User: Which sequence fits this backbone?
């Protein structure tokens, strides 16, 4: 069976796996973004706290993804739970680091001006600092998403959702007629999803970042 024939016969299953893969990455990115920005907001004003936040989140990336998921299985079981926890932890570093850099890079005179017109600390953060720090934060989100697209495939080891199941089935049946087709279909599917997500982020940047800041 040729690769195109395989795609045709397995189209429905591949689309389902692709949707689950994209959904898992998107949901984990939402959680990682919320946690990452919160960590940055709490730590960016202090040098040691910011460095601690970056170092702590960087530590997660030193743990091999297969090992981390394997360690999580006895604690939370198989399926979605270890996938969500692992992907969220791996997605934190670029977001935390870029959010801290972005918040520290805000012009202090703008913050002082906002303070001068009576803005509270929360209002300054939400209406001045975070909007100005949004471009580097978005860059961190893009980097995290590209990483998680590949790492999410390993979640199949823990019966997680996504295109990793197609890749693992192919690897497990190497030598059979469709083994290469399975691995290739899963791999190309992840690449296509990564490109689609990145294109969506580019569009989001054009819609949310003023042209002057982009320049």
Assistant:
């Amino acid at each position: 069976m040729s690769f195109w024939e395989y795609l045709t016969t397995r189209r429905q299953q591949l689309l389902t796996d692709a949707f689950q893969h994209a959904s898992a990455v998107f949901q984990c990115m939402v959680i990682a973004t919320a946690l990452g920005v919160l960590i940055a907001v709490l730590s960016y004003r202090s040098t040691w706290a910011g460095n601690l936040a970056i170092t702590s989140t960087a530590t997660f990336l030193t743990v091999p993804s297969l090992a981390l998921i394997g360690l999580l299985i006895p604690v939370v079981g198989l399926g979605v739970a270890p996938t969500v926890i692992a992907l969220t932890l791996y997605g934190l570093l670029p977001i935390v680091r870029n959010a801290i850099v972005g918040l520290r890079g805000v012009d202090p005179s703008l913050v002082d001006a906002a303070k001068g017109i009576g803005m509270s600390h929360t209002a300054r953060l939400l209406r001045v600092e975070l909007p100005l720090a949004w471009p580097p934060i978005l860059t961190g989100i893009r980097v995290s998403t590209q990483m998680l697209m590949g790492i999410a495939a390993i979640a199949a080891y823990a019966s997680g959702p996504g295109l990793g199941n197609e890749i693992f089935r192919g690897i497990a049946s190497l030598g059979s007629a469709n083994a290469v087709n399975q691995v290739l279909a899963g791999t190309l599917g992840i690449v296509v999803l990564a490109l689609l997500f990145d294109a969506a982020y580019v569009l989001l940047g054009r819609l949310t970042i003023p042209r002057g800041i982009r320049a």
